[in-house]
Every structure is written in structure tokens, then in C-alpha cells.
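Limitations
The C-alpha cells in this dataset are predictions for the assembled complex, not deposited experimental models. Users should treat interface geometry with appropriate caution, especially where small molecules or nucleic acid strands are included. An illustrative entry is reproduced here so readers can see what is and is not provided.
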Amino acid sequence: KQEVTQIPAALSVPEGENLVLNCSFTDSAIYNLQWFRQDPGKGLTSLLLIQSSQREQTSGRLNASLDKSSGRSTLYIAASQPGDSATYLCAVEDGSARQLTFGSGTQLTVLP
Amino acid sequence: ETGVTQTPRHLVMGMTNKKSLKCEQHLGHNAMYWYKQSAKKPLELMFVYSLEERVENNSVPSRFSPECPNSSHLFLHLHTLQPEDSALYLCASSQDLGANVLTFGAGSRLTVL
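Predicted assembly:
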């Protein structure tokens, strides 16, 4: 059974810092990996989707990488801003079940 | 607005009540999903519908009953729930099953007394 782990569970940084969020998964037979953002009391917003054949995806100040063989992904946020404060969730789509398995998320606080 | 609308946003119910959660999308998507998000736990997939047919039921108790009358609407009927069922229930849709970006609603916060 696929398991997704996100470390750290919470992170607090001063504004302007570059930061990295980590995601690991146990079964490397995945179709894709997605990073989502969730604001308090809200639903999830998809940030980046990396297909299993890709190594990275970029959107603005966000860059996500995927190393399928080692079961790892990172989300890099450049020049963090207070508006980036949210919970970031990683999810992998399993090769067999074609379902998303989510991690528990990293709660990010960017201090002004 | 994300394109997926959930009502009600908040619901408080007793263990003997019957209520329903509603999800609506006008994105032209063919797949719709119900997820449960409990405090400090990963999202759990509950039900998946593709073209109005249920394709997945992840061992969800029968006190949760989904209904998909058409490709734009998804319901979750609730009856005789337990306090541990209190959670945020999220609806999502995607163009098709698999390898697609999910669009989530804002969720329905359910409290069972």
C-alpha cells in the first residue's frame, strides 16, 4: 500500500527566504505526483503536476522536482512571501489503482 | 470560486439525523470524487464516479451513501453518523480519471454531536 510522508509537519521562515518542502513515497510505480496548497478552511488548489516521465515542473516562484527511483519529491519556493503561508500537500497517483494518495501536509508560515 | 461548489459549508447534526452534502461543477469534467479530511490525517478517498457511474468505493461505512444523478452533481447522503465522522468533506472533479489535475471545492465542515 502506497504511503506518502511529508517532512517537516510545520515550518516557519522569515519573509524573503528560499525554502524546500519534502515529500517521500514508498511505491515508485506512480503515474504522477501533484503538489497542492490548502488555505485554512478552504479546499485544495493544485500547484504543480509532474508526470512520472518528467524530472521537474516550474510555475513562477515554485519549482517541483521528482526522483521516482528514490521515491522523493521536493517543492522549492523562492523568495517566500507572507501570502505563501498555507498547508502544502503532496499526492501521488498510483500506477495500479489510479488514485491519489496524499501526505499529511507541511504547514508553512512566512513571517513578515 | 474554483469551479466546484459545495453546500452547505458548515453542518452540525445529531447522530440520528439524516442530511446530505451537495457538490456541483460546471467545468465539463467527467470524474467526481468525495474525500474526507480529518484533523492531522491525510485526505482519504471515499468515492469516485466517472460518467455518473461509481468506479471506486474505498471501504466506506454504509452510513455514507453517494449519489451522482448527472455529470455535474454529486451528493453524499448521511445517516446515523458517529462523532468520529466529524471532518471536512471535500468534493473534487477532473476531466477524466487518472493523470489529471483535480479541482477541489471549498469543503463542507461536518460536526456530529
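Some entries come with short summary sentences. For this one: Residues 47 and 88 of chain A are 9 Å apart (CA to CA).
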